[in-house]
Amino acid sequence: MVAAIETTVLNCWFGSLQVLKDVDILVERNEIFGIIGPANSGKTTFLRAINRLNALVPSYRQTGLIQLAGRDIEEIEDTVLRRRVGIIFALPQVLPISIFDNVAYGPRMHGIANRSTLEQIVEQSLRRAHLWDEVKDRLHSPALRLSGGQQQRLCIARTLAVEPEVILYDEPCSGLDPISTAKVEETMQQLKERYTQVLVTNNTKQAARVCDRCAFFLMGQVIEVAQTSVLFTNPADQRTNDYITGRFG
Amino acid sequence: MSGARVRQNIAFGLMGLVTMLVVLPIILTLWYVVANGIGAISLDFILQPPRNGMREGGIFPAIVGTFILIVGTMILSLPIGVLSAIYLVEYAKDNLFTRLIKLAVVNLSGIPSIVYGLFGLTVFVVLLRLGTSILAGCMTLAIMSLPVIITATKEALESVPASYREISLSLGATKWQTVRHCVLPYAIPGILTGTVLSLSRAAGETAPILFTVAAFYLPRLPRSLFDQVMALPYHLYVISTQVPNMPLSLSFATAFVLISLVFLMNLVSIILRAHYRRKRQW
């Protein structure tokens, strides 16, 4: 089976600063792939390389190959690539419009104008993001009135609304309380059947709870990739062991 | 009271005093103009052309002229200004050339208006053979308004959080869709403020219209874009300095009408701004 995402000798720079060094990562279909590591280890840069958000920074350069379902992403247009690879940012980033309009934003940009089609997409996306029951009676009230956890699930719904194959999460629970975090994690588990998910997190316990496999990044290099249970109980590298036992980072 | 508390009170007191010093002249000027001019304001003054060497009658042609000039200036400068600001902020690469252009735009807003007037005379009136006409006047005023509109629009666009653009792009929207649906709606209040500010200035300027459009005395209304018109600021200048035995109340009444017109424009922009703010939901 073709991997969902595969990077080969990926090197990234911002100006003269090399942020990623020879990164080889293979993400299987429908798995939740975790990326852990201390700050400045290149986790976010890796994520944003996959949907080419890094390219928005003028000083950004990159070499190596990134394949999405077996195809070099350089051959895929920005709009198509970002539709296929959705991203959830660290802090819930909702637009100052209604809940409905937030979820409908993507589909509308892709040319869907029919009201009932949009309503259908919005409901389905909110259901999949486990937010529907909480907001179904106030779809047209401002999204910014939702709690932080609800806003983050709204962002997930907004991403689902454009029907991606892959969802990237960039520390999605860093600003959330434990209960909201649990809900987001539960949502991720439910989304496994349909989507490939990559989770960057600073919270090693969260990685241990949610991910099938994990990679440990340090200073822009991949130190180790393993089944989550193996990585957290019997890491092959001393540095991984130091990090997960809290000796640094 | 502790020393810090005393120092704080002194500082606040000083700032309050300075604020009063700023506001007081504005209030006094307004009061002076209104008090001296209100007596001469009547329906005839607003709706009649001047008579008897402008010492009697009204200022209707000048009101219409200024109105035409403002509308014409807006039609010319608003799309050009907003579009070029969008280009500068959202599309242009950040290199020496764009930085030079941005610097030039900021500096252009500091050029004295008489320079714009002379520029309009040489380029629009003489070189392009438009003659002294509404078209030449509007083009001159538009050129003068552009730097302020561009700068205000640029700042309004830059104040829209970068995250809005990232959200939109990350959902697969194109660059233009992002600007159109995720940036512009939130920049409109700022753009409006800048536009009205620069149009208010254009409405009150004498120098740029002096050689390009303004008529000394033209009681009939303009028939085409190539006609001259009377305009309030120039009319005010003429009746205050060029006409002997001019009743002072007429000058003040003219000033009052000009100020009211500018105030009305600002009122419209405040209402529009409030309308767009409401659309943004917190």
SSE arrangement:
The complex is a heterodimer of chains A (249) and B (282).
Chain A: E1 5-14, E2 17-27, E3 32-36, H1 43-50, E4 60-68, E5 71-72, H2 78-84, E6 85-88, H3 99-109, H4 115-128, H5 132-135, H6 148-160, E7 166-170, H7 178-191, E8 196-200, H8 204-210, E9 213-218, E10 221-227, H9 228-233, H10 238-244
Parallel strand pairs in A: 3-8, 3-9, 6-7, 7-8
Antiparallel strand pairs in A: 1-2, 1-4, 4-5, 9-10
Helix pairs in contact in A: 3-4, 3-6, 4-6, 6-7
Chain B: H1 3-37, H2 43-47, E1 50-51, E2 56-57, H3 60-91, H4 96-108, H5 113-127, H6 134-158, H7 162-170, H8 175-204, H9 207-210, H10 232-241, H11 248-279
Antiparallel strand pairs in B: 1-2
Structure overview:
- The complex is a heterodimer of chains A (249) and B (282).
- By secondary structure, chain A is of the alpha/beta class.
- In chain A, 37% of the residues lie in helices and 26% in strands.
- Chain A has a domain at 5-95 and 169-244: 3-Layer(aba) Sandwich (Rossmann fold), CATH 3.40.50.300.
- Chain A has helices at residues 43-50, 78-84, 99-109, 115-128, 132-135, 148-160, 178-191, 204-210, 228-233, 238-244; strands at 5-14, 17-27, 32-36, 60-68, 71-72, 85-88, 166-170, 196-200, 213-218, 221-227.
- In chain A, the strands form two sheets. Chain A has a six-stranded mixed sheet with strand order 6-7-8-3-9-10, sandwiched between helices.
- In chain A, strand 4 (60-68) and strand 5 (71-72) form a beta hairpin.
- Chain B has 282 residues and is mostly helical.
- Chain B has one domain (41-279): Orthogonal Bundle (MetI-like fold), CATH 1.10.3720.10.
- The radius of gyration of chain B is 23 Å and the shape is globular.
- Chain B starts with a helix and ends with a helix.
- The relative contact order of chain B is 0.15.
- The mean pLDDT of chain B is 91.
- Chains A and B meet through helix 2 and helix 3 of A and helix 7 and helix 8 of B.
